[in-house]
């Protein structure tokens, strides 16, 4: 799908995605009157005040992950050489 970007973080990476409360989603809404939110799966709470903190974490994870073309190569190699 053209609107999806897939990147993987290698186990050998120094990035530690589990250092926060668990999986999270940053929610952005088209109406600027609706504040951005962070949904943290581990406790089902929403955190409007922590959006910036989670954006930094997400940016760091993206930077530590393989690029989209590298990710595709890694997945192809795993499929072709299990």
Automatic annotation (TrEMBL):
Pfam families: DUF5753 (PF19054). Residues 2-76 form the DUF5753 domain. InterPro entries: DUF5753. It comes from Streptomyces iconiensis. This is Scr1 family TA system antitoxin-like transcriptional regulator.
